[in-house]
Protein backbone atom coordinates (compact mmCIF):
# COMPACT_ATOMS: atom_id res chain seq x y z
CA UNK A 1 0.00 0.00 0.00
CA UNK A 2 2.69 2.47 1.08
CA UNK A 3 4.50 2.96 -2.24
CA UNK A 4 1.40 3.01 -4.39
CA UNK A 5 -0.43 5.33 -2.00
CA UNK A 6 2.48 7.73 -1.96
CA UNK A 7 2.60 7.69 -5.72
CA UNK A 8 -1.15 8.40 -6.01
CA UNK A 9 -0.91 11.16 -3.43
CA UNK A 10 2.01 12.83 -5.20
CA UNK A 11 0.87 12.39 -8.80
CA UNK A 12 -2.90 12.65 -8.54
CA UNK A 13 -4.52 13.90 -5.37
CA UNK A 14 -1.79 16.46 -4.69
CA UNK A 15 -2.04 18.22 -8.05
CA UNK A 16 -5.86 18.09 -8.02
CA UNK A 17 -5.91 19.60 -4.55
CA UNK A 18 -3.65 22.38 -5.78
CA UNK A 19 -5.90 22.95 -8.81
CA UNK A 20 -8.84 23.43 -6.45
CA UNK A 21 -6.79 26.07 -4.66
CA UNK A 22 -6.35 28.04 -7.87
CA UNK A 23 -7.16 31.69 -7.19
CA UNK A 24 -10.22 32.11 -9.44
CA UNK A 25 -11.73 28.75 -8.55
CA UNK A 26 -11.24 29.56 -4.91
CA UNK A 27 -12.94 32.94 -5.31
CA UNK A 28 -15.89 31.28 -7.04
CA UNK A 29 -16.04 28.66 -4.30
CA UNK A 30 -16.00 31.23 -1.50
CA UNK A 31 -18.46 33.41 -3.40
CA UNK A 32 -20.93 30.56 -3.74
CA UNK A 33 -20.46 29.56 -0.10
CA UNK A 34 -21.07 33.14 1.02
CA UNK A 35 -24.56 32.92 -0.47
CA UNK A 36 -25.48 29.68 1.32
CA UNK A 37 -27.14 31.31 4.35
CA UNK A 38 -29.53 33.08 1.99
CA UNK A 39 -30.17 29.85 0.09
CA UNK A 40 -30.73 27.83 3.29
CA UNK A 41 -33.10 30.34 4.90
CA UNK A 42 -34.80 31.27 1.62
CA UNK A 43 -35.49 27.64 0.76
CA UNK A 44 -37.38 27.13 4.00
CA UNK A 45 -40.14 29.37 2.72
CA UNK A 46 -40.75 26.71 0.07
CA UNK A 47 -41.57 24.26 2.84
CA UNK A 48 -43.81 26.85 4.45
CA UNK A 49 -45.57 27.48 1.14
CA UNK A 50 -46.04 23.75 0.51
CA UNK A 51 -46.23 22.31 4.05
CA UNK A 52 -45.84 18.52 4.27
CA UNK A 53 -49.23 17.97 5.90
CA UNK A 54 -52.60 16.66 4.66
CA UNK A 55 -54.38 19.10 2.36
CA UNK A 56 -57.38 19.64 4.63
CA UNK A 57 -55.29 20.93 7.51
CA UNK A 58 -55.76 24.59 8.30
CA UNK A 59 -52.10 25.48 7.65
CA UNK A 60 -52.20 23.76 4.26
CA UNK A 61 -55.30 25.75 3.28
CA UNK A 62 -53.73 28.97 4.50
CA UNK A 63 -50.56 28.23 2.56
CA UNK A 64 -52.44 27.36 -0.63
CA UNK A 65 -54.29 30.68 -0.48
CA UNK A 66 -51.17 32.73 0.14
CA UNK A 67 -48.49 30.97 -1.92
CA UNK A 68 -47.34 34.07 -3.77
CA UNK A 69 -46.88 36.11 -0.60
CA UNK A 70 -45.20 33.32 1.36
CA UNK A 71 -42.70 32.87 -1.46
CA UNK A 72 -41.57 36.52 -1.55
CA UNK A 73 -38.65 35.96 0.88
CA UNK A 74 -37.63 32.95 -1.24
CA UNK A 75 -37.82 34.99 -4.45
CA UNK A 76 -35.61 37.70 -2.97
CA UNK A 77 -32.92 35.29 -1.76
CA UNK A 78 -32.51 31.80 -3.22
CA UNK A 79 -34.36 32.60 -6.44
CA UNK A 80 -31.84 35.33 -7.30
CA UNK A 81 -28.81 33.73 -5.68
CA UNK A 82 -26.48 34.76 -8.53
CA UNK A 83 -26.81 38.39 -7.46
CA UNK A 84 -25.45 37.50 -4.01
CA UNK A 85 -22.83 35.23 -5.53
CA UNK A 86 -21.59 37.94 -7.91
CA UNK A 87 -20.98 40.18 -4.93
CA UNK A 88 -19.26 37.32 -3.09
CA UNK A 89 -16.98 36.39 -6.00
CA UNK A 90 -16.02 40.02 -6.61
CA UNK A 91 -15.26 40.50 -2.94
CA UNK A 92 -13.18 37.35 -2.53
CA UNK A 93 -11.22 37.64 -5.77
CA UNK A 94 -10.28 41.28 -5.24
CA UNK A 95 -9.33 40.49 -1.65
CA UNK A 96 -7.01 37.72 -2.85
CA UNK A 97 -5.31 40.27 -5.13
CA UNK A 98 -5.08 42.77 -2.27
CA UNK A 99 -7.39 45.13 -4.14
CA UNK A 100 -10.17 47.07 -2.47
CA UNK A 101 -12.74 44.26 -1.89
CA UNK A 102 -15.75 46.57 -1.79
CA UNK A 103 -14.92 48.01 -5.23
CA UNK A 104 -14.42 44.51 -6.61
CA UNK A 105 -17.72 43.31 -5.14
CA UNK A 106 -19.64 46.28 -6.51
CA UNK A 107 -18.05 45.94 -9.93
CA UNK A 108 -18.94 42.24 -10.11
CA UNK A 109 -22.54 43.05 -9.16
CA UNK A 110 -22.69 45.75 -11.82
CA UNK A 111 -21.21 43.34 -14.36
CA UNK A 112 -24.01 40.84 -13.73
CA UNK A 113 -26.73 43.51 -13.84
CA UNK A 114 -25.35 44.85 -17.12
CA UNK A 115 -25.94 41.47 -18.77
CA UNK A 116 -29.67 41.76 -18.08
CA UNK A 117 -32.07 43.84 -20.17
CA UNK A 118 -34.65 45.77 -18.14
CA UNK A 119 -38.25 45.50 -19.30
CA UNK A 120 -40.94 48.14 -19.22
CA UNK A 121 -44.10 46.92 -17.55
CA UNK A 122 -47.17 49.11 -17.90
CA UNK A 123 -48.14 50.79 -14.68
CA UNK A 124 -44.91 49.65 -13.00
CA UNK A 125 -42.18 51.22 -15.10
CA UNK A 126 -38.77 49.67 -15.60
CA UNK A 127 -38.42 46.21 -14.06
CA UNK A 128 -35.54 43.81 -13.90
CA UNK A 129 -36.21 40.21 -14.98
CA UNK A 130 -35.22 37.96 -12.07
CA UNK A 131 -34.51 34.69 -13.87
CA UNK A 132 -31.04 35.70 -15.15
CA UNK A 133 -30.08 36.41 -11.52
CA UNK A 134 -31.08 32.88 -10.51
CA UNK A 135 -29.61 29.47 -11.16
CA UNK A 136 -29.61 30.07 -14.92
CA UNK A 137 -27.36 33.08 -14.53
CA UNK A 138 -24.72 31.48 -12.35
CA UNK A 139 -22.25 30.70 -15.13
CA UNK A 140 -22.52 34.19 -16.63
CA UNK A 141 -22.10 35.51 -13.09
CA UNK A 142 -18.87 33.57 -12.63
CA UNK A 143 -17.44 34.83 -15.91
CA UNK A 144 -18.35 38.51 -15.62
CA UNK A 145 -17.46 38.73 -11.91
CA UNK A 146 -13.97 37.49 -12.68
CA UNK A 147 -13.77 39.84 -15.67
CA UNK A 148 -14.77 42.79 -13.48
CA UNK A 149 -12.08 42.12 -10.90
CA UNK A 150 -9.46 41.48 -13.57
CA UNK A 151 -10.25 44.90 -15.08
CA UNK A 152 -9.81 46.43 -11.65
CA UNK A 153 -6.51 44.64 -11.22
CA UNK A 154 -5.29 45.54 -14.70
CA UNK A 155 -5.91 49.25 -14.06
CA UNK A 156 -4.25 49.06 -10.66
CA UNK A 157 -1.09 47.26 -11.84
CA UNK A 158 -0.76 49.45 -14.96
CA UNK A 159 -1.42 52.53 -12.83
CA UNK A 160 -4.44 53.53 -14.91
CA UNK A 161 -6.24 55.28 -12.07
CA UNK A 162 -7.06 58.80 -11.01
CA UNK A 163 -4.86 59.59 -8.03
CA UNK A 164 -6.06 62.06 -5.42
CA UNK A 165 -3.68 64.07 -3.26
CA UNK A 166 -3.03 62.40 0.10
CA UNK A 167 -5.07 64.95 2.09
CA UNK A 168 -8.28 63.69 0.41
CA UNK A 169 -10.16 61.25 2.71
CA UNK A 170 -9.63 57.56 1.91
CA UNK A 171 -13.28 56.85 1.05
CA UNK A 172 -13.32 59.70 -1.48
CA UNK A 173 -10.03 58.77 -3.11
CA UNK A 174 -11.13 55.13 -3.33
CA UNK A 175 -14.20 56.07 -5.32
CA UNK A 176 -12.03 58.09 -7.69
CA UNK A 177 -9.57 55.24 -8.05
CA UNK A 178 -12.42 52.99 -9.21
CA UNK A 179 -13.65 55.47 -11.83
CA UNK A 180 -11.59 54.27 -14.79
CA UNK A 181 -11.97 50.52 -14.15
CA UNK A 182 -15.72 50.99 -13.67
CA UNK A 183 -15.91 52.94 -16.91
CA UNK A 184 -14.01 50.24 -18.81
CA UNK A 185 -16.25 47.55 -17.32
CA UNK A 186 -19.53 49.29 -18.09
CA UNK A 187 -18.53 50.25 -21.61
CA UNK A 188 -17.15 46.83 -22.53
CA UNK A 189 -20.12 44.80 -21.26
CA UNK A 190 -22.64 47.28 -22.67
CA UNK A 191 -20.86 47.09 -25.99
CA UNK A 192 -21.46 43.34 -26.10
CA UNK A 193 -24.96 43.20 -24.65
CA UNK A 194 -26.51 46.49 -25.82
CA UNK A 195 -24.62 47.62 -28.93
CA UNK A 196 -24.01 44.16 -30.41
CA UNK A 197 -27.19 42.79 -28.87
CA UNK A 198 -25.61 39.56 -27.62
CA UNK A 199 -27.67 37.72 -25.01
CA UNK A 200 -24.83 36.46 -22.85
CA UNK A 201 -27.18 34.32 -20.79
CA UNK A 202 -28.53 32.41 -23.81
CA UNK A 203 -25.04 32.04 -25.24
CA UNK A 204 -23.49 30.68 -22.04
CA UNK A 205 -26.52 28.52 -21.33
CA UNK A 206 -25.98 26.79 -24.69
CA UNK A 207 -22.29 26.36 -23.97
CA UNK A 208 -22.75 24.79 -20.54
CA UNK A 209 -25.84 22.74 -21.45
CA UNK A 210 -23.80 19.54 -22.03
CA UNK A 211 -22.04 20.05 -18.68
CA UNK A 212 -25.33 20.64 -16.87
CA UNK A 213 -26.73 17.45 -18.40
CA UNK A 214 -23.59 15.44 -17.66
CA UNK A 215 -23.43 16.41 -14.00
CA UNK A 216 -26.96 15.14 -13.51
CA UNK A 217 -26.39 11.80 -15.27
CA UNK A 218 -25.62 8.53 -13.48
CA UNK A 219 -21.94 8.87 -14.29
CA UNK A 220 -21.98 12.53 -13.24
CA UNK A 221 -23.26 11.44 -9.84
CA UNK A 222 -20.84 8.55 -9.41
CA UNK A 223 -17.72 10.55 -10.30
CA UNK A 224 -17.82 13.07 -7.43
CA UNK A 225 -18.96 10.33 -5.04
CA UNK A 226 -15.87 8.31 -5.92
CA UNK A 227 -13.44 11.25 -6.00
CA UNK A 228 -14.53 12.53 -2.60
CA UNK A 229 -13.84 9.27 -0.76
CA UNK A 230 -10.72 8.81 -2.86
CA UNK A 231 -9.34 12.11 -1.53
CA UNK A 232 -10.39 11.31 2.01
CA UNK A 233 -8.53 8.00 1.74
CA UNK A 234 -5.39 10.14 1.75
CA UNK A 235 -6.80 12.27 4.54
CA UNK A 236 -7.64 15.23 2.33
CA UNK A 237 -11.00 16.96 2.70
CA UNK A 238 -12.69 15.55 -0.41
CA UNK A 239 -15.76 17.76 -0.49
CA UNK A 240 -13.70 20.91 -0.14
CA UNK A 241 -11.81 19.95 -3.31
CA UNK A 242 -14.47 18.31 -5.47
CA UNK A 243 -17.04 20.85 -4.29
CA UNK A 244 -14.91 23.68 -5.63
CA UNK A 245 -15.45 22.37 -9.15
CA UNK A 246 -18.88 20.79 -8.79
CA UNK A 247 -20.72 23.13 -6.43
CA UNK A 248 -21.74 25.71 -9.08
CA UNK A 249 -23.49 22.91 -10.98
CA UNK A 250 -25.04 21.54 -7.79
CA UNK A 251 -26.42 24.96 -6.89
CA UNK A 252 -27.89 25.38 -10.37
CA UNK A 253 -29.74 22.06 -9.94
CA UNK A 254 -31.01 23.08 -6.53
CA UNK A 255 -32.24 26.49 -7.62
CA UNK A 256 -33.89 25.12 -10.75
CA UNK A 257 -35.62 22.41 -8.71
CA UNK A 258 -36.82 24.97 -6.18
CA UNK A 259 -38.03 27.28 -8.96
CA UNK A 260 -40.01 24.38 -10.46
CA UNK A 261 -41.62 23.71 -7.07
CA UNK A 262 -42.45 27.40 -6.66
CA UNK A 263 -44.14 27.32 -10.08
CA UNK A 264 -46.20 24.35 -8.91
CA UNK A 265 -44.59 21.86 -11.32
CA UNK A 266 -45.26 18.21 -10.56
CA UNK A 267 -41.92 16.89 -11.82
CA UNK A 268 -38.59 18.48 -10.92
CA UNK A 269 -35.83 18.87 -13.51
CA UNK A 270 -32.78 17.60 -11.61
CA UNK A 271 -31.74 14.57 -9.58
CA UNK A 272 -28.45 15.63 -8.10
CA UNK A 273 -28.10 18.97 -6.33
CA UNK A 274 -25.57 18.93 -3.48
CA UNK A 275 -28.46 18.11 -1.16
CA UNK A 276 -28.88 14.76 -2.95
CA UNK A 277 -25.37 13.78 -1.91
CA UNK A 278 -25.64 15.37 1.51
CA UNK A 279 -28.78 13.58 2.64
CA UNK A 280 -28.82 10.31 0.70
CA UNK A 281 -25.13 9.50 0.27
CA UNK A 282 -22.96 11.28 2.86
CA UNK A 283 -24.93 9.90 5.80
CA UNK A 284 -22.74 10.55 8.82
CA UNK A 285 -20.22 12.29 6.55
CA UNK A 286 -18.40 11.36 3.31
CA UNK A 287 -18.10 7.60 2.97
CA UNK A 288 -21.45 7.05 4.73
CA UNK A 289 -19.48 6.42 7.90
CA UNK A 290 -22.54 6.32 10.15
CA UNK A 291 -22.71 2.69 8.99
CA UNK A 292 -19.20 2.08 10.28
CA UNK A 293 -20.03 3.68 13.61
CA UNK A 294 -23.15 1.54 14.02
CA UNK A 295 -21.09 -1.50 13.11
CA UNK A 296 -18.56 -0.49 15.80
CA UNK A 297 -21.25 0.01 18.41
CA UNK A 298 -22.74 -3.40 17.61
CA UNK A 299 -19.71 -5.59 17.00
CA UNK A 300 -16.56 -4.00 18.46
CA UNK A 301 -14.46 -6.36 20.55
CA UNK A 302 -11.26 -4.37 20.90
CA UNK A 303 -11.13 -1.65 23.54
CA UNK A 304 -9.97 0.85 20.96
CA UNK A 305 -12.94 0.31 18.64
CA UNK A 306 -15.39 0.38 21.51
CA UNK A 307 -14.11 3.73 22.74
CA UNK A 308 -13.88 5.15 19.23
CA UNK A 309 -17.41 4.02 18.37
CA UNK A 310 -18.78 5.70 21.48
CA UNK A 311 -16.87 8.97 21.03
CA UNK A 312 -17.62 9.22 17.29
CA UNK A 313 -21.32 8.38 17.51
CA UNK A 314 -22.68 11.83 18.40
CA UNK A 315 -20.55 13.81 15.90
CA UNK A 316 -21.36 11.14 13.30
CA UNK A 317 -25.09 11.59 13.81
CA UNK A 318 -24.56 15.24 12.85
CA UNK A 319 -22.44 14.33 9.81
CA UNK A 320 -19.05 15.21 11.28
CA UNK A 321 -16.78 12.26 10.64
CA UNK A 322 -13.19 13.43 10.94
CA UNK A 323 -12.97 11.70 14.34
CA UNK A 324 -13.63 8.35 12.72
CA UNK A 325 -11.75 9.00 9.46
CA UNK A 326 -8.57 9.85 11.37
CA UNK A 327 -9.44 7.85 14.47
CA UNK A 328 -10.15 4.39 13.02
CA UNK A 329 -8.15 5.36 10.93
CA UNK A 330 -9.68 5.02 7.49
CA UNK A 331 -6.88 7.15 6.03
CA UNK A 332 -4.30 4.90 4.34
CA UNK A 333 -5.94 1.85 5.92
CA UNK A 334 -6.26 -0.74 3.11
CA UNK A 335 -8.94 -2.74 4.95
CA UNK A 336 -11.34 0.11 5.71
CA UNK A 337 -10.75 2.09 2.50
CA UNK A 338 -12.53 -0.64 0.53
CA UNK A 339 -15.96 -0.27 2.18
CA UNK A 340 -15.33 3.49 2.55
CA UNK A 341 -15.22 3.79 -1.25
CA UNK A 342 -17.75 1.06 -2.15
CA UNK A 343 -20.55 1.98 0.27
CA UNK A 344 -21.31 5.48 -1.07
CA UNK A 345 -21.14 4.17 -4.66
CA UNK A 346 -23.81 1.59 -3.81
CA UNK A 347 -26.06 3.93 -1.84
CA UNK A 348 -25.67 6.69 -4.45
CA UNK A 349 -26.69 4.25 -7.21
CA UNK A 350 -29.75 3.13 -5.27
CA UNK A 351 -30.69 6.73 -4.45
CA UNK A 352 -30.15 7.87 -8.02
CA UNK A 353 -32.57 5.29 -9.39
CA UNK A 354 -35.01 5.82 -6.53
CA UNK A 355 -35.21 9.48 -7.56
CA UNK A 356 -35.15 8.91 -11.34
CA UNK A 357 -37.90 6.27 -11.13
CA UNK A 358 -40.01 8.61 -9.02
CA UNK A 359 -40.03 6.72 -5.71
CA UNK A 360 -38.41 9.69 -3.98
CA UNK A 361 -38.92 13.41 -4.61
CA UNK A 362 -35.76 15.19 -5.81
CA UNK A 363 -34.30 17.52 -3.20
CA UNK A 364 -35.15 21.21 -3.58
CA UNK A 365 -34.48 22.90 -0.24
CA UNK A 366 -31.20 23.13 1.62
CA UNK A 367 -31.41 22.29 5.32
CA UNK A 368 -28.21 22.94 7.34
CA UNK A 369 -25.81 20.04 6.74
CA UNK A 370 -25.36 19.20 10.42
CA UNK A 371 -28.91 17.82 10.80
CA UNK A 372 -29.26 14.04 11.23
CA UNK A 373 -29.81 12.53 7.77
CA UNK A 374 -33.44 11.34 8.09
CA UNK A 375 -34.55 14.81 9.23
CA UNK A 376 -32.44 16.55 6.60
CA UNK A 377 -33.76 14.30 3.84
CA UNK A 378 -37.34 14.89 4.97
CA UNK A 379 -36.92 18.66 4.86
CA UNK A 380 -34.82 18.70 1.66
CA UNK A 381 -37.57 16.87 -0.24
CA UNK A 382 -40.28 19.13 1.14
CA UNK A 383 -41.54 16.39 3.46
CA UNK A 384 -41.32 13.12 1.53
CA UNK A 385 -41.53 10.09 3.87
CA UNK A 386 -40.08 7.91 1.11
CA UNK A 387 -36.90 9.99 1.39
CA UNK A 388 -36.70 9.05 5.07
CA UNK A 389 -37.22 5.42 4.15
CA UNK A 390 -34.44 5.66 1.54
CA UNK A 391 -32.08 7.10 4.15
CA UNK A 392 -32.86 4.28 6.56
CA UNK A 393 -32.32 1.67 3.82
CA UNK A 394 -29.02 3.34 2.89
CA UNK A 395 -27.90 3.26 6.52
CA UNK A 396 -28.75 -0.45 6.69
CA UNK A 397 -26.80 -1.09 3.47
CA UNK A 398 -23.80 0.79 4.80
CA UNK A 399 -23.82 -1.23 8.03
CA UNK A 400 -23.97 -4.44 5.99
CA UNK A 401 -21.05 -3.43 3.74
CA UNK A 402 -18.87 -2.04 6.53
CA UNK A 403 -19.37 -4.86 9.03
CA UNK A 404 -17.24 -7.68 7.50
CA UNK A 405 -14.35 -5.29 6.84
CA UNK A 406 -14.65 -3.77 10.27
CA UNK A 407 -14.63 -7.21 11.90
CA UNK A 408 -11.39 -8.13 10.13
CA UNK A 409 -9.81 -4.88 11.24
CA UNK A 410 -11.20 -5.11 14.76
CA UNK A 411 -9.78 -8.61 15.16
CA UNK A 412 -6.36 -7.24 14.25
CA UNK A 413 -6.73 -4.53 16.87
CA UNK A 414 -7.89 -7.08 19.43
CA UNK A 415 -4.89 -9.26 18.68
CA UNK A 416 -2.56 -6.28 19.16
CA UNK A 417 -4.25 -5.40 22.42
CA UNK A 418 -3.96 -8.95 23.80
CA UNK A 419 -0.31 -9.10 22.74
CA UNK A 420 0.39 -5.82 24.48
CA UNK A 421 -1.37 -6.98 27.62
CA UNK A 422 0.60 -10.24 27.60
CA UNK A 423 3.84 -8.33 27.15
CA UNK A 424 2.92 -6.12 30.07
CA UNK A 425 2.22 -9.12 32.31
CA UNK A 426 5.48 -10.74 31.21
CA UNK A 427 7.40 -7.54 31.87
CA UNK A 428 5.70 -7.09 35.22
CA UNK B 1 -1.27 29.98 26.30
CA UNK B 2 -3.59 30.41 23.35
CA UNK B 3 -3.85 27.73 20.65
CA UNK B 4 -5.65 28.23 17.34
CA UNK B 5 -6.97 25.15 15.47
CA UNK B 6 -7.76 25.48 11.78
CA UNK B 7 -9.85 23.00 9.83
CA UNK B 8 -12.27 23.22 6.91
CA UNK B 9 -15.22 24.72 8.73
CA UNK B 10 -14.15 24.75 12.36
CA UNK B 11 -16.54 21.87 13.17
CA UNK B 12 -14.37 18.79 13.36
CA UNK B 13 -11.47 20.47 15.10
CA UNK B 14 -13.87 21.59 17.84
CA UNK B 15 -14.06 17.92 18.79
CA UNK B 16 -10.30 17.53 18.83
CA UNK B 17 -9.96 20.71 20.87
CA UNK B 18 -11.49 18.93 23.85
CA UNK B 19 -8.90 16.16 23.61
CA UNK B 20 -6.04 18.66 23.70
CA UNK B 21 -7.53 20.63 26.60
CA UNK B 22 -8.05 17.48 28.67
CA UNK B 23 -4.52 16.27 28.09
CA UNK B 24 -3.08 19.68 28.95
CA UNK B 25 -5.16 19.85 32.13
CA UNK B 26 -3.76 16.44 33.14
CA UNK B 27 -0.27 17.88 32.82
CA UNK B 28 -1.35 20.97 34.77
CA UNK B 29 -1.01 23.29 31.79
CA UNK B 30 -3.60 25.86 31.05
CA UNK B 31 -4.61 26.21 27.42
CA UNK B 32 -7.13 28.34 25.64
CA UNK B 33 -8.01 26.55 22.39
CA UNK B 34 -10.24 27.81 19.63
CA UNK B 35 -11.33 26.04 16.43
CA UNK B 36 -11.96 28.01 13.26
CA UNK B 37 -12.41 27.41 9.52
CA UNK B 38 -9.82 28.36 6.89
CA UNK B 39 -11.77 31.44 5.80
CA UNK B 40 -11.56 32.91 9.30
CA UNK B 41 -7.78 32.66 9.59
CA UNK B 42 -7.00 36.08 8.18
CA UNK B 43 -9.22 37.87 10.68
CA UNK B 44 -8.40 35.73 13.68
CA UNK B 45 -4.68 35.09 13.38
CA UNK B 46 -3.54 38.48 14.68
CA UNK B 47 -5.54 38.20 17.92
CA UNK B 48 -2.60 37.17 20.07
CA UNK B 49 -2.37 33.41 19.47
CA UNK B 50 0.71 31.58 20.68
CA UNK B 51 0.51 28.80 18.12
CA UNK B 52 -1.56 27.84 15.07
CA UNK B 53 -2.26 24.18 14.26
CA UNK B 54 -3.68 23.08 10.92
CA UNK B 55 -5.87 19.98 10.55
CA UNK B 56 -4.58 17.18 8.31
CA UNK B 57 -7.58 17.13 5.92
CA UNK B 58 -6.78 20.62 4.69
CA UNK B 59 -3.05 20.10 4.31
CA UNK B 60 -3.38 21.30 0.69
CA UNK B 61 -4.15 24.72 2.13
CA UNK B 62 -1.44 24.57 4.77
CA UNK B 63 0.95 26.87 2.89
CA UNK B 64 -1.68 29.60 2.66
CA UNK B 65 -2.48 29.40 6.35
CA UNK B 66 1.18 29.31 7.30
CA UNK B 67 1.91 32.37 5.20
CA UNK B 68 -0.72 34.34 7.09
CA UNK B 69 0.50 33.03 10.45
CA UNK B 70 4.16 33.75 9.74
CA UNK B 71 3.30 37.30 8.70
CA UNK B 72 2.15 38.06 12.24
CA UNK B 73 4.82 35.92 13.89
CA UNK B 74 2.67 33.00 15.01
CA UNK B 75 4.39 29.59 14.81
CA UNK B 76 2.31 27.33 12.57
CA UNK B 77 2.40 23.57 11.97
CA UNK B 78 0.32 20.65 10.83
CA UNK B 79 -1.56 18.29 13.10
CA UNK B 80 -0.41 14.72 12.38
CA UNK B 81 -3.31 12.56 11.11
CA UNK B 82 -2.87 10.04 13.94
CA UNK B 83 -3.42 12.82 16.48
CA UNK B 84 -6.60 14.14 14.88
CA UNK B 85 -9.04 12.01 16.89
CA UNK B 86 -11.00 12.51 20.11
CA UNK B 87 -8.46 10.14 21.73
CA UNK B 88 -5.40 11.87 20.30
CA UNK B 89 -4.75 14.16 23.29
CA UNK B 90 -1.17 13.10 24.12
CA UNK B 91 -0.08 13.23 20.47
CA UNK B 92 -1.74 16.62 20.02
CA UNK B 93 0.10 18.07 22.98
CA UNK B 94 3.34 16.58 21.68
CA UNK B 95 2.69 18.04 18.21
CA UNK B 96 1.98 21.43 19.75
CA UNK B 97 5.22 21.39 21.70
CA UNK B 98 7.10 20.32 18.57
CA UNK B 99 5.75 23.32 16.66
CA UNK B 100 6.64 25.66 19.49
CA UNK B 101 10.25 24.46 19.70
UniProtKB/TrEMBL annotation, chain A:
Keywords: Cell membrane, Membrane, Sugar transport, Transmembrane, Transmembrane helix, Transport. GO terms for cellular component: plasma membrane. Residues 8-405 form the PTS EIIC type-3 domain. It is found in: Cell membrane. InterPro entries: PTS_EIIC (IPR003352), PTS_EIIC_3 (IPR004501), PTS_IIC_cello (IPR004796), PTS_Sugar-EIIC/EIIB (IPR051088). The chain crosses the membrane at residues 32-50, 70-90, 133-155, 176-198, 218-239, 279-300, 320-342, 349-367, 387-406. Coiled coil: none annotated. It comes from the Bacteria. It is a multi-pass membrane protein. The keyword Iron-sulfur does not apply. GO terms for biological process: carbohydrate derivative transport; phosphoenolpyruvate-dependent sugar phosphotransferase system. The phosphoenolpyruvate-dependent sugar phosphotransferase system (PTS), a major carbohydrate active -transport system, catalyzes the phosphorylation of incoming sugar substrates concomitant with their translocation across the cell membrane. This is Permease IIC component. It comes from Pontibacillus litoralis JSM 072002.
UniProtKB/TrEMBL annotation, chain B:
GO terms for biological process: phosphoenolpyruvate-dependent sugar phosphotransferase system. Pfam families: PTS_IIB. Gene3D superfamilies: 3.40.50.2300. Residues 1-101 form the PTS EIIB type-3 domain. One of its GO terms (molecular function) is protein-N(PI)-phosphohistidine-sugar phosphotransferase activity. SUPFAM superfamilies: PTS system IIB component-like. Coiled coil: none annotated. PROSITE patterns: PTS_EIIB_TYPE_3. CDD domains: PTS_IIB_chitobiose_lichenan. Keywords: Kinase, Phosphoprotein, Phosphotransferase system, Sugar transport, Transferase, Transport. The modification Phosphocysteine is found at residue 7. This is PTS cellobiose transporter subunit IIB. It comes from Pontibacillus litoralis JSM 072002.
Amino acid sequence: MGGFANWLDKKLSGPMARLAEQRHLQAVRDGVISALPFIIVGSFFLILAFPPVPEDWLIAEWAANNVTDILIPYRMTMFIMSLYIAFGIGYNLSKSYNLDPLSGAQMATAALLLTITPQVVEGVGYTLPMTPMGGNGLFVTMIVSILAVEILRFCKTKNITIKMPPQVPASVSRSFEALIPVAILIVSISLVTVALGVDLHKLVEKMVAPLVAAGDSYFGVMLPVFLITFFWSFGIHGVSIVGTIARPLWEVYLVENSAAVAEGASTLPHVAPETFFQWFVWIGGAGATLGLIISMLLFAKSKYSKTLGRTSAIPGLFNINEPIIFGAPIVLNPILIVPFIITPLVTASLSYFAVVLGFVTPTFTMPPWTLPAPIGAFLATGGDWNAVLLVLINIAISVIIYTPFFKIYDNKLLEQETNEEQNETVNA
Amino acid sequence: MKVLFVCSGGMSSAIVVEALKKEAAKKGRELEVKAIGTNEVEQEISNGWSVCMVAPQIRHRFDQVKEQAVKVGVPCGQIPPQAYTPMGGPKLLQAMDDILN
